[in-house]
From TrEMBL:
GO function terms (MF aspect): DNA binding; DNA-binding transcription factor activity
Species of the source: Thalassospira profundimaris
SUPFAM superfamilies: NagB/RpiA/CoA transferase-like (SSF100950), Winged helix' DNA-binding domain (SSF46785)
Repressor is among the record's keywords: yes
UniProt keyword list: DNA-binding, Repressor, Transcription, Transcription regulation
Protein name: DeoR family transcriptional regulator
Signal peptide: none
Amino acid sequence: MQKRPTERQASIVETVRADGFRTIEDLAERFQVTAQTIRRDVNALCEEGLLRRRHGGVEPALEHENIAYRARKVLHVNEKRKIAAQVARHIPDGASLFFSIGTTPELVASALLQHRSLRIFTNNLNVAYVAATNDSFDVTLIGGRLRNRDRDVLGPEVEAFFNSYKVDYGIFGVGGIDPDGSLLDFDEQEVRARSAILANSRQNYLVADHTKFGRNAVVRGGNISQVTAFFTNTAPPDAMSAMIHKSGVELHVPEPDAEFPTFYVPEDH
């Protein structure tokens, strides 16, 4: 799939992930389109690695690496917007911030565009692009080898970059959160970069939607008990909530009927 998934395709992925398996006929009825249309969508999503064909239908793909950026950008976007709007309320004008890789940190950057005089340090090309649309922001982007698929920079130079500063807030996502509170990702370099953000931020804000609860990713780095605050879109499982409360971590979950201001999100680039 050369272009990012359509809203319907993103909804198909979310539906299959929630249910574990759906037939083509089920999906056609659910989305009120023909079986042929669903097959085209499913074929494209399987080629992208988002789903996997199974006799009679389709199931979630096995995740050995993270989903490509273009696909992640439209998955659970409304939930991520709510998270981003919550975070923006806790950041004052004039603050300094680290931003990690990931689509949720990118949406946090978008939610901050009404702020003034932020100083931003990042290895996330998408965050730098968004932040640069506010002329009052001072944006520092690490140089290095770009991961084209994810539009970010990783490697030893990134760790040295984050270790060179001490900032007010670190904004970062994760690949998954284990039931024991371990923060998980798909790549050792991603974990090392996140660890540098944790070590050099006065306050650390973890931003992750509900699909990260219990999601399997193989590289462990840090624990949810180490963050200042966790911003998500729905309450975590009971055991995880109890662990967060016991650790003194602030948990921010919006009320079901909470309203958040809309914010500008630059077009895909």
